[in-house]
Write a structure and sequence with these properties.
The chain is mainly beta. Helices cover about 15% and strands about 45% of the residues. The chain has 2 domains: about 100 residues, Roll (Pnp Oxidase, Chain A); about 130 residues, Beta Barrel (Thrombin, subunit H), CATH 2.40.10.220. Strands 1, 2, 3, 4, 5, 6, 7, 8, 9, 10, 11 and 12 form a 12-stranded antiparallel sheet that branches. Strand 8 and strand 9 form a beta hairpin. The radius of gyration is 18 Å and the shape is globular.
């Protein structure tokens, strides 16, 4: 079957790494844009700079869950990494198992929360390493969150898949941002690596509302956010929904 026909040039594609090791308990995703499709292959451009393909630990045969939208429907299938085409472009081989799915919906809620933000013009590899060191090695060891970053109170829109957050301009699509989040469940600080997926207009105060999608976050932390968001919505007598992007 030809799977390439479902991917048009410039189409946004989400890649979620599939781990053979069941001990991996964290979300690991990246975004790409379709550049060229063949019946059983797809070339993607990664939006994280000219060295993006070199900044992710790709290996031949590495498996990914590929997700995108096609004519208003969610599409999911499995693919494996073939090769790097350039510093920011990669080639995948479709493995089959095409599914048309309903996009996962995350409940969302407006809430005031303490948030720490690290914005660095670093490549994907450095930011992924920073997330691993700060979350797995430091936060889990009991280090005070105040030693990692400065926290401020923000009005945010929070969901398990990401958040809306005011940021100082300029903000660009695919900027990588480290988020430290206190959600009030007394289970410690959540750390997530996120990318900017939409940017609002710049306000008179020099800030913009930006939509962030989590790239790297522990499964347990994503579940904690879901629990807190659902509890707040129930208390408010509201419902909220957020798509993956």
């Amino acid at each position: 079957m030809s799977y390439g026909k479902y991917f048009n040039k410039g189409q946004k594609v989400f890649l979620k790494r599939i781990f053979d090791d069941e001990s991996q308990k964290a979300l690991d995703t990246i975004t790409g844009y379709a550049m060229r499709s063949q019946p059983m292959q797809l070339d993607l451009s990664l939006p994280y700079g000219s060295d993006a393909a070199d900044s992710y630990p790709f290996e031949p045969g590495m498996k990914f869950e590929v997700m995108t939208d096609n004519k208003g429907m969610g599409l999911r299938l499995t693919a494996s990494f073939v090769e790097k085409i350039s510093g920011k472009d990669i080639r995948l081989q479709f493995e089959g198992n095409l599914e048309f799915i309903s996009r996962r919906i995350f409940p969302r809620v407006d809430v005031t929360a303490w948030v720490g933000i690290k914005r660095e013009k670093s490549n994907l590899s450095i930011m992924r390493t920073l997330w691993d060191e700060h979350h797995v090695k430091k936060i889990k060891s009991g280090i005070s969150a105040a030693e990692l970053t400065e926290f401020n109170k923000y009005l945010i829109n929070l969901a398990g898949g990401g958040m809306r957050l005011p940021l100082e301009a300029p903000v660009e699509m695919a900027d990588l941002i480290m988020i430290y989040l206190s959600i009030g469940d007394k289970k410690g600080i959540i750390c997530a690596l996120a990318e900017v997926v939409w940017v609002g207009p710049t306000g008179e105060d020099g800030q913009v509302q930006a939509g962030l999608r989590f790239l790297n976050i522990l499964d347990e932390d994503q579940a904690r956010i879901d629990v807190v968001v659902k509890a707040l919505l129930e208390r408010l007598g509201k419902t909220g929904e957020e798509g993956d992007d």
